[in-house]
Write a structure and sequence with these properties.
Length: 101
């Protein structure tokens, strides 16, 4: 649905809004229909459950979690994470000596 004199950015924003509203509603209804359908294959139900759990954050990850869990990390990622945490700990220890008004 093209609107006259609409910029590509405006079209993108309009469609992203539709996906986030109408699309989310439609996806939710479709997922529930699959889960309620006694004839739906087990694989379809499993994939749907997985998607619903991920979308709702039930796998322990929020939308802002960008770092993988330690068991998913490569040795290099683990090394960077340890160094970052050590630096954070050193920073917090040095802040303990600061005097606040």
């Amino acid at each position: 649905m093209k609107h006259a004199h609409e910029t590509p950015e405006e079209a993108l924003e309009r469609n992203l809004h539709r996906i986030r509203t109408e699309g989310l509603d439609a996806a939710t209804e479709a997922a529930l229909a699959v889960l309620r359908d006694p004839k739906a294959p087990a694989q379809a139900k499993s994939a749907t459950i997985n998607a619903v759990y991920r979308a709702s954050g039930l796998f322990g990850r929020s939308e802002d979690d960008s770092e993988p869990e330690p068991y998913e990390m490569t040795p290099e990622q683990l090394d960077r994470a340890v160094k970052r945490l050590e630096a954070q700990l050193r920073s917090e220890k040095s802040d303990e000596g600061a005097v606040f008004d």
